[in-house]
Amino acid sequence: MTSLTIIPDIHADPTRLHTSLDAATGSNVAFLGDFIDAGNSVDVPDDASVLRKVRSLVDHEGALAVMGNHELNAILFHRRDNKGAPLRQHSSNNVSQHASFLDNIGFATPSAIEWTEWFLSIPLWIELEGLNLVHACWDQIAIEMVKERRPDGRLTADDLEEVAHKESEFAMAVEMLTSGPEVMLPDNFWFYDYKGVKRNKVRLAWWKSLQGSWRDLALAVPDVTQLPDTSVSGTEGITVYGEGKSPVLVGHYKMKGEPLIESEQAACLDYPEKICIYHWVGEKSLSNDNIEVLKR
Ligand SMILES: [Mn+2]
């Protein structure tokens, strides 16, 4: 493989998809998941058209894709357990997160079932010669855990109830790969996320040494001054992604500011306010020169 263009979270934005694909001309593409569920900033959300395009590229053009937490959530949202309860609760937060898909494709319609079945065929991670791709966190222990049962990284319908309950090691490994490591804040601390949801757990930058403060290491926190200005704790289950590993590219974290690599080994490409892609040409150390920010 000589060149690969990596495209992060599309979130039902056809303009974002087509702008990214236009800039990938001549190279194969790899998607980092989260194709569906528009945020507020998407002018004309169209989950179905984004999915049709991505699926045709994956099925017929050799494009690569890993599953995002939004695809996993959708699989669960549209299915029920053997007692008839939805595998993902239809709470107001969960419905609002999934609103553009529900408006566009409906709840448990034949089309919703067909799309979410296709989501099941998307692997949780892709390991290329010299490059790793995952939606939220490359955690080797989590990957080995899932690999034991699903060597190709693809969940099956038999896994879904277990994954939905988020209790077993297998389920927690799937959560780690699709949503990243999450740690409980010290007592009495909480923050509002980008959707205005109050949270007492925070995602941490697993590509850093984990020696810093909550404010240094927290991801996807709009106002870090809501967090304690003390050293992080409770990070025992998190493996730092460091030197000697192939570079890894992820989406997921709704980054702000100028898109930059996080280290020579890791970059997050999900910048909702920009359209950001990465051109990988086989380098063993990631480079800011290979990040491209596109005009809408
Ligand atoms: Mn995500």
Description:
- The protein is α/β, with parallel strands linked by helices and 296 residues long.
- It folds into 2 domains: 4-137 and 245-294, Purple Acid Phosphatase, chain A, domain 2 (4-Layer Sandwich), CATH 3.60.21; 182-236, no CATH class.
- The chain is 29% helix and 16% strand.
- The protein contains 10 helices and 14 strands.
- The strands form 4 sheets. It has a 5-stranded mixed β-sheet, with helices on one face.
- Strand 1, helix 1 (14-22) and strand 2 (28-31) form a beta-alpha-beta unit.
- It is globular.
- The two termini are 29 Å apart.
- The model has no long low-confidence stretch (mean pLDDT 96).
- It binds manganese (II) ion (MN).
- Manganese (II) ion binds at residues 34, 68-70, 135, 252.
CATH architecture of the largest domain: 4-Layer Sandwich
In CATH, the homologous superfamily of the largest domain goes by the name Metallo-dependent phosphatases
Contiguous low-pLDDT stretches (5 residues minimum) are: none
| Main sheet specs | 5 strands, mixed
Succession of helices and strands:
EHEHEHHHHEEHHHEEEEHEEEEE
Gap between N and C termini, in Å? 29 Å
Give me the side-by-side strand order of the main sheet. 3-2-1-13-14
What is the mean pLDDT?
96
CATH topology of the largest domain: Purple Acid Phosphatase, chain A, domain 2
Residue share in β-strands? 15-25%
Number of domains: 2
Shape: globular
Class by alpha and beta content: alpha/beta
Q: Given the structure, what is the number of helices? A: 10
Which CATH class of the largest domain is shown? Alpha Beta
Chemical compounds bound to the protein: manganese (II) ion
Rg estimate, integer Å: 18 Å
- β-strand number: 14
> Portion of residues in helices?
25-40%
